Amino acid sequence: MTDTRIVVKRFVDHFLAGRIVEGLSILNEDGVYTIIGTTPASGVYRGRQDLLDRLLPSLQTFAAPPVFTVSEIIVEKDRAVVLASS
Question: Disulfide check for 86: which of 38, 51, 66, 69 has CB 3.0–4.6 Å away?
């Protein structure tokens, strides 16, 4: 089993480098992912494919990948929270 902290670190590294698709692609296939807030991307995603299917069309409209700032990463067992803004 891959350590959750390692996966989250790789995910964050991809996002911070502007490699969003690569970051999303390493997530667990059957995870539940939540983006909080009131943006069009906000919501609950059931599985990696749901996340890719619903987010990628929006990302393709950007002239350049969004720039993210990560303020905190919290990992406990197989759960993680990444506090970020863009």
Answer: 66
How many Cα neighbours within 13 Å face the side chain of 30?
Answer: 1
* DSSP H or E run through 48: helix 48-59
Q: What is the rounded average pLDDT of the residues 6-30? A: 93
Which residue's structure tokens are 């990463």? 73
Whole-model pTM: value is 0.83
Q: What is the pLDDT of residue 63?
A: 85
Q: How far apart are the C-alpha atoms of 84 and 68, rounded to whole Å?
A: 7
Distance from chain centroid for Cα 52: 10
Alpha-carbon span 46 to 38, nearest angstrom: 18
Q: Of all helices (H) and strands (E), which one includes residue 15?
A: helix 4-16
